[in-house]
Design goal:
It contains eleven helices and eight strands. By secondary structure, the protein is α/β, with parallel strands linked by helices. It has one domain: TIM Barrel (Alpha-Beta Barrel), CATH 3.20.20.140. A five-stranded parallel sheet has the order 1-2-3-4-5, with helices on both faces. A three-stranded parallel sheet has the order 6-7-8. The relative contact order is 0.15. The structure holds zinc ion.
């Protein structure tokens, strides 16, 4: 079964934290053992760049791509879902773009960005993070950026963005908005998780939600088990999200996870648990990776 993951911070761990690639949570070997065909690697520049600027961090992470040890697609996606671990690049924290469309085009030319999380946990040139409250909405550059992203076929990722920003994206982005690594706020009340209304909006627009494996987003007491990940997936599917749900593990960016779900080899374990809950083979294939793949292909076709 094709498995896809919408978010991890492995490039940051290697390029900025100086971690050895073989000691990261995501390694080529673990991706292969977990059956992961598509891994999204984020250029994460939310923290104040240790290299001076978020842009410099972004460039350093791009230079570290060969150290990942898996092929990274910087051109069009292949016709068929990859059967061997393959990477794509995203951006987490739009401050890397320094308020400039030229920077967006530069990163896109080099890395073929598939999605951009408009903010991390700081205010930037684009908008405001969920962590600092629900308002205000996107800034003028945020709207300009959305237009440029639509033209390039890059999805707007609302994980980390505040609510007013989320609704601005829903109103103004032509491509479907996504939340690459967020869970259900009505099951775990933290600002990084999505409300029912946000989930419904993502369903209406044919977007994507990657379920985050961070224990503190799965349960408020942080003592999450694999059943809690199942509980969040169940809750999303009960709202009608089965065609837009998938995984956004956040591996190499989190320090607490359910037992059995601590690295890519946990994906088949989670899928087995879902199968035991009664999900059909077609539903499992959609959740495992089909939903994300289909949206990425749509975004690519929409680029002008
Ligand atoms: Zn994140």
């Amino acid at each position: 079964m094709f498995i896809a993951d919408a978010h991890c911070d492995t490039l940051y761990a290697i390029a900025i934290d100086g971690k050895r690639p073989e000691s990261c949570t995501i390694t080529p070997d673990k991706l292969e053992r977990g059956g992961v065909g598509l891994q999204t690697f984020a250029l994460f520049a939310g923290r104040k760049g240790t290299l001076g600027t978020p842009y410099a961090d972004g460039v350093a992470m791009l230079e570290a791509v060969p150290k990942l040890g898996v092929p990274v697609l910087t051109g069009d996606l292949p016709e068929a879902m990859p059967q061997q671990p393959t990477g794509i690049i995203s951006c987490e924290g739009g401050e890397m773009l320094e308020g400039s469309i030229a920077r967006l085009e530069e990163f896109h030319r080099k890395a073929r960005l598939r999605m951009i999380a408009l903010t991390w946990n700081f205010e930037n040139e684009i908008g405001h993070p969920a962590k600092l409250g629900p308002k205000p909405g996107l800034k003028p550059f945020g709207f300009e950026l959305l237009r440029a992203m639509d033209a390039l076929g890059i999805l707007a990722d609302t994980s980390h963005l505040n609510e007013a920003g989320f609704w601005d994206v829903c109103e103004r982005a032509a491509l479907p908005p996504i939340a690459s690594h967020s869970d259900c706020r009505w099951l775990c009340d933290v600002p990084r998780n999505l409300t029912r209304e946000q989930v419904m909006a993502l369903i209406d627009r044919g977007g994507f939600i990657g379920v985050n494996f961070y224990s503190c987003f799965l349960r408020e007491d942080g003592r999450a088990t694999l059943d809690d990940a199942v509980r969040h997936i169940d809750a999303l599917c009960e709202l009608g999200a089965e065609h837009i749900v998938g995984f956004g593990s956040d591996f190499d960016g989190i320090d607490a996870w359910p037992e059995g779900l601590g690295d890519p080899t946990g994906f088949p374990v989670l899928l087995d648990a879902l199968a035991r809950r009664g999900y059909t083979q077609a539903q499992l294939e959609a959740l495992a990776g089909g939903n994300l793949w289909n949206l990425l292909k749509r975004a690519e076709r929409a680029a002008c």
